[in-house]
Protein 1
Amino acid sequence: MYLRGNYVNLGLEQKMRLAMENENTVIVVGALIECQKKVLLIKDKISGKLYFPSASRLGHIDDEQSLLGVLSKLGISINEHYLFSVFEKPVDKTSFIYYRAEVKEGLIESQNDFYGFDDIPFDQLNDETSRIMLKRYIKERELNAFGIFVGKESEGKIEAISTTN
């Protein structure tokens, strides 16, 4: 399902549709981008903290205010992206939608902002939620078995992704 510039699927449509239709809800759409066992982390120029690329909508590469536009501006081209986490921050009711994507080396202009899995400075990530999400990503990458986290910022469950033949 496509709504307000975002693809939402796998049975989460109803909850996210209601959140997106509420104009008072702040939505953050982000991505964990991997290239050859390295993950993209952007450094905040003021605080020095690291964070995942994000925007208010998934959008398209021509929209600089969208996630795909932000990635395009960074010189990163992704062809496929998969839902990874959907959660709400209870304090301010912000809804977060995170995707995961793997890019080939030729589809990025620079690897300067990519950190090897063993070299990630977790203490420099901007919040505990990001640390937990990234550690989960690395673990699931090692197993090559991804799920989708659904819940609140500090609690929820990982929905298994099943395939049918």
Protein 2
Amino acid sequence: MDSSKLRRTLIRLTITAIISLIALTVLSPVTAATIADVNFDDKVTVGDKELVLNGMGLRTATAFKVKVYAIGLYLENKSSDAEAIMASAENKRITMNFLHKVSADELSGGWTEGFENNTKDISGIKDQIAKFNASMKDVKTGDSIILNFSGGKVDVLINNTLVDSIEGESFLKAVQAIWLGRKPPNEPLKKGILGG
């Protein structure tokens, strides 16, 4: 092969490699961070608002620290103030990506414990808690539960399918308190989703 043909072949291969690299960069989702091999997007949209990843955490259970789910908290504006986040009417998202199978009954039991541990009086939201717990399904490794907070309600999505919508300002704050309240499932999880 003469030098001019070799040069053209090398230029063509270089251009092809650059175009491939650009295509991969443009077509790949933007990932802000990873925890426990779970990727979280840098930004998401809830309602008509773009939200940013505030932080991530890991829900562990038992003395053996079994990894149950990776969680990401998305807010309109980053914050490390749990009370301000829960009091805010801004759109929010909580995304849980499961690393272990969990039954619907175990999920409901965990949520109920979270409500009781972090809400002073749940008597006024018992119907919403029952509806929330009834929306749960068995999940396995790789499944997700997303909670979108917007317009005075929380949409519950399991594997990106809308399962239910539950209204009520007190209920919305109580749901967020499961992870942001005084007794979260574990302290490192709360610290992580608050950006710490």
Protein 3
Amino acid sequence: MKDYLILLAGTPRGGIQTWKSLIRYVKNPLDCDIALLYGDIFQMPEFLLKHTKFDWQFEEPKNWKDFYLENYPNSNALDFLIKGEEYGTAGGIDKYSGSGAIVCGFKTILFNNYLDYLSDYKYIIHSRFDQYYVDYHPKLIGEDIWIPKGEDYYGVCDRHAVFSSRYSEQYFGISKFLSDKTAQENIKSKIIASESVFLEHLRYQGLENKIKRIDRLQFTSAASTDETRWRKAIYKIHFSKNLLMKYPDEFLSSIYNSLKNKKFKYFLKHPLLCINYFYLILRRKAGNLLKDKT
């Protein structure tokens, strides 16, 4: 059995260029299997399916409120997530924007149905479909939860994590925290956002001390045709085929880390990404100069 399982959960966004980077920089060098968890409202592209070992499609509810009423013992989860509707945690419930409730729902589905599969691997790489990798994913050894630096938004970044499979039950068992009103009343964060819910859940499960931050080597991407429930990507990766970045700071951080480690060799290997990196830096500096003058 292989050491790593890449678990992609959510909406199949990002496009072929993004998924090729996953195969090139994560699956092949780490010799990973891939599992896909997604709703039946999407047709999974053949490119991903041909690289996939586990195809976990489920019947996605039209309103995730129904999922919570069916799968949670009380209304605490719904009440708590709706409190953070300003920050997207209620996304998926009724007409709220964002995807927070959907993300927690996916974890509940994994917890209820697929833990036995995860136990066959040493490490789980839990990520999203829209992560574009700019360099080789590190081979991580130990019993920690590794999360890229940045994008924490009152908690800890919830877009990508690598962890020892021995923590799978705790990591995906978010229903316990969402059902515990006493725990919710005693959270440290004053803001209920997806990232703070993720951190509070890990804290509730006794896993906060296992978190280790690693340098970011990927950014959240989008194809020009992708739909979104939250922030729409507007920043182009110039000279690419309709590839966009959603959060420029992620892009800058990932390219900076790659250049820091490999310097000119990285530029020669990825000139287009580096040109976009330097262009964005110059654009920001020019913008700051104009602000200073006004």
